[in-house]
Structure formats: structure tokens, C-alpha cells
Request: fold
Amino acid sequence: MKALQRIGAVVAKELRQLMRDRLTFGMIVGIPIMQLLLFGYAINMDVRNLATGVADLSGTAASRQFLMDGFHTQVLEIRYQVKSIKALEQLMREGKISVGVYIPPDFERRLQQPDRAAAQLLIDGSDTVVQGAVAQLARISTGSISPPLYRPGTFETRTYYNPERRSPVNTVPGLIGVILTMTMILFTAVAIVRERERGNLELLINTPIRTSELMLAKILPYIFIGLIQVTLILVVGDLLFRVPIRGALLNIYTVALVFIVANLALGLMISTVAQSQFQAMQLTFFILLPSILLSGFMFPFDGMPLPAQWIAEVLPMTHFMRLIRGVVLRGASLPELAGELAILGVFILFALSFAIKRFQKRLD
Amino acid sequence: MNAELAIEASGLNKMFGPVHAVANLDLAVPRSRIYGFLGPNGSGKSTTIRMLCGLLTPSSGQISVLGHSIPRDAEALRMKVGYMTQKFSLYEDLSVHENLRFIASVYTLERRAAKAQIAESIERYRLGALVRQRAGTLSGGQKQRLALAAATLHEPQLLFLDEPTSAVDPENRRAFWESLFDLVNEGTTILVSTHYMDEAERCHALAILDRGKLVAEGSPADLSRDIDAQVILVRVNQPRRAGKVLHAQKWVRSVAQIGNELRVLIDKGHAEAAQSTRDLLGGAGFAIDNCQPALANLEDVFVAATLQGKEMRAA
Ligand SMILES: Nc1ncnc2c1ncn2[C@@H]1O[C@H](COP(=O)(O)OP(=O)(O)O)[C@@H](O)[C@H]1O
Ligand SMILES: [Mg+2]
Reply:
């Protein structure tokens, strides 16, 4: 009962300070919106005149017709005509083209075989704009082309440099991970360091509050903030980019909640180690970068070298990516995700115990 | 252990790397008294207070505060002591009232008791007009009153005040000390650090600290009486030059100019101090207006005590 009163006192105080600190408050709303706009527009941008190379090894009337139809949308613009797929790859490496169209010598024969792709689209996957645009194009053109010659699956699309093609449906849930990692860790990472820098800690540790109570009280307000951010991302993602919310909403929030707590505990851990707010921020970015790069958000997890995979397994974000993709893309239920949830649970227990053990009600 | 004592410490040491911040300190603070730490900056006042609160671990030594062994039982002490830090440590972005409510809650005062206690503190420390103001915008004296209100909200038996008046004007300082005597009347024990002589003068008992060492202890009156030096006041035509001449003597401990007068501290063992001062200055051609012994004040005690420390170090 007394413990609750003490925790409540600190939680109320934190929330009050939060509302008054314009910078933090701005970050709560600003970071998600900024990130969404940055990544979101990259996905949905209306792209025209992408530099394209063509290797038409078939050279038949059918292939010429096919190319004409393919280019009438003006998304692609033929800049180079070459003789081999190797030459296309070379052009792409040099950055001269973003898209390559390869029509094999047996194009017409392939068209008759429904189980084989008749042609190949080579896409520079390092550029998400191109990727998104061409992915759309491949859908549109196959749909609009007259039946005898064209059918779904005419193109075999091959994305270079980023084989796991990201679609908006895939990116927005991933963004929840990036945004929560950034804000949640940062907020708690500075939470205790700031009190130390401002001198408040000397007063606080002389009160009867227990270390575990203080740690909990530092986390609780931000759980609430984190859930607000998740809502913000889902709503804005839907409004601006028409990224539909698939998967059960309750599952999305449950998964996000566990991930939020994991990040807050991690931030608290940082807070008990860092000597200054600046150091706390540095440590936050030290975790944020591998989280973005190694978690499977940017690059496919299985394609990474083993040591990178081991590092990734330690990051909460990796497990969140699996969870949220499971929920959103596969419509997985919570029991099916129990394993990954349990890993995050263990992570939370470890980080919290570390922070409580490490934080002393002492100045030395 | 003595039940009459609020604080007992023996052989207390604190090292910060090579810095010996507190050296072999023995302390006995009686209950329901104002006990002062007098010392210049860096003499170890804050460090000692922090060790007594259990916020710093002593390098060596024993501490007992209100019967609890510190730092082992520091948590048992939290409800019984109040601590006003040297640097303002309440939340600057919260209002006066919000700060007090926060303190009342972390000390788990019952809701109704808290309300009454806060109202009383606001009245007592003249914060009525400021309740809605953010703590960060208060003046030095107002901050100090708020800090004292916060430190006493849970009615502690023992109060640590670390240089509470350093940012406060003389009038507010007087009012502040009135509040302290009210608290002592109610039974509170107060340990206060200061570097102001006039404040030290008001304490029931004093410890004079110099570079981490306790160099003198006792009531201000006893300290003045037992001073290890003689005080001579000299009125002379060229005080600055006369001071230099005096200072060169082995038996002169220190010379301070106060207005046109020189206040001279002379070795206790030196016989006929006033006469030899008169002889010395007369012989050097100064016109002496007046030269006679005076009662020692705390500043003399402080200077004599700290010089003694210096000599002992040199020896
Ligand atoms: N946390 C610390 N780390 C290193 N040195 C310290 C620390 N705190 C105090 N000191 C040193 O200990 C000495 C005593 O400091 P302090 O107790 O603050 O003196 P006072 O309060 O009398 O001004 C000083 O030399 C100071 O520099
Ligand atoms: Mg100090």
C-alpha cells in the first residue's frame, strides 16, 4: 500500500514533468510522424522515367509489342539497349540504370508455358523508391495487357541488393519497432541521469522510496506514452499511406506492449550506467543502429553472417520484427508467438534486475 | 552508545582517490540542539553530512545516528531524518505546491494528514503567495524556505542542513534562524553547516573543520574563552605598514585590519603581549593611539584553530 503510494507519487511527477517539457513532448509525437513521412513517402512516391536498360535477346514482334505496352505508362524510360543480362548487371552496378528488362531468346516459347516466367525485371533494391514503384508497375502492366500474349506471371521479378522486397504492409509495422526503440530507450535512458545532473537524486535517495519502486515508477508513465505512439503510427499509416491494419488489433497491441516494456527496461539499464545525459544518448544510438540494421527490418535476417545473427538475437527489436510480422502478415495468434514473447519476457526480467541491482541509493 | 546523543561518530575517514576529504573525525551531537559545522569551502562539511545520512560510504570509521548503525541501517533512518541539500534539489519545473505534495506522497503521509501538514508548512514558511509558482522561478530565499518546508514535512527528529543560507540575504537569514529555533523547541535536533561566523555564533555547539580535520569543538562561548591565543587591538597611524612589521614577528600568529584598527593574534605563551606590541611599534616609529587586549570572537577562534593546524602540518 505504501509502496503503491510512493510509486504513484513518482509516476504522477514524471507525467507532470513530461507534459511541461516541450522537447520531450514534441519527440513523443514528432518522431513517429517524421519517420512515417520519411519512410512512407519513399514507399508511395509516384515515380516516372526510371532509367531502364533492355536486353531483348528474342527480337521478335511479340517482344517488341511487349516492350511497347510495358513502357507506355512512362514509369520506365529506355536508356540502354544491350545484348546480355551481364551487361544489364554491369549498368546497374555502375548506377546507370535502376531497372533492367531481360527478354530471353526463347521468350515466345516461354509465353506458352504458364508455369515459367517469360521475362525478367531486374530491380535496384538499394533504392526503396524504385523498388516500390516497379513492384506496382509489374502488377499493373500484367493486368492491363491483352490476354493471349500477357498473363499474370509474365515477369519474373528479381530484386537486387535487397532480395526481401519490402512492401508498405511490411514497412509500417517495422517502423513501429524502429520508432519505439528510439523513443522508449531514449526517454528512460536519460530518466535517472537527468535527476542526477539536476541534483534531484540526492533528495530522492534520502526518501523512503525503494530502488525497485523508483525503477517501476520510471517505466510506468512511458508504457502509456509508447501505446499512444503505436496508435499514432497505425492511424497515420492508414490515413496517409493506406496501409491497412491487418491482424487482430489486440495482438498488435499485446506484442507492442511487451516490446515497449523491454525497451524501457533497457533504457533504465543504460540510465544506471551512463554518467551524463550525453552518454545516455550515445548508448541509445549504440543500440538503435544495430536494431535497425540487424533486426531484419532492413536486410533479411537469414542472409546475414552468423555473428551478426547472434548479435541480432540479443536485440529486442529482432524479436519484435518476428512478432509483428507474424501478427500482421501471417495473422498469427498469440499462443503461436509464445516463444518470441517469452524471450522478450526474459529480456525484461534481466534488464530490470540489472538496473535495480546496479542502482544504489548512494552517491558513491 | 549514549541515548542523549543524536549522532555519534568515531574515526571517520573519507578518501576520494588521493583527496582526504574527511580525516579521523570524532563527533558527538546532543539531541534537541543546533550543532554547527563551521569551515571554509572544501573542508569536508558536505561529505561528512552525506556520510551521516548514509549517502556516502565512509572509507573507515563508525557512525551511529539515532541509534542506527550507518551506512548499514540507512534505510531505517529515512523517515526519521530530513536533509536539505547544499544545491537546491526540488523539481524546478513543478510548482511549490506540487513539490510539497510529491514529498508528502514519497514519505507516505496519509492523505488528510498530508493536506494539513502542507497547509501548515505553507503558512509557517511564508509560501502562501507562491503556491502556484514554479520552484525554478523562486528567489534564493524563497527556494530555501521551500526546501526547509520539504525537509521537515514528515516531521523528522533530526535535520541536516547543508549551507542553507548561502544564497540568502541577511534579513531572510535571521527569519530562517528563528524557524530553526522553533524546530529545536519542538524537539528536533539540527545539524547545520555554514561558513558565516554570525550563524556559527547562534549554534549551541560547533565543530570547526579545516581540510577534513576537526580543529576545535565546543559552544561558541567556550571556544572563545579557551582560545589558544591572545587578542590585541591596535589603533595606529599607518595600519598597513604596522601590520607588516607585526606579521614578521615569530610570536604574532596573524594580523587582520578592521577599519583603522589592527586585530592581532599573539601566541598564548607570549608574556605581556600588549606591552611588547606597543614597544615593537613604538620602536619602529609608529604613532600608537591605542593598544589593549580584547575578548576573542569566533573568527579569532577560527583563525587560531586553522593556523594551528597549519603549523602542526609543517612540524
Ligand atoms: N564526489 C567527490 N569526488 C571527488 N572529490 C570530492 C567529491 N566530493 C567532495 N570532494 C572533495 O572533498 C573535499 C571536501 O568537499 P566538501 O565535503 O564538499 O566540502 P565543503 O562542503 O566543506 O565545501 C573537497 O576537496 C572536494 O573537492
Ligand atoms: Mg559543501
In short: DSSP finds 14 helices and five strands in chain A.
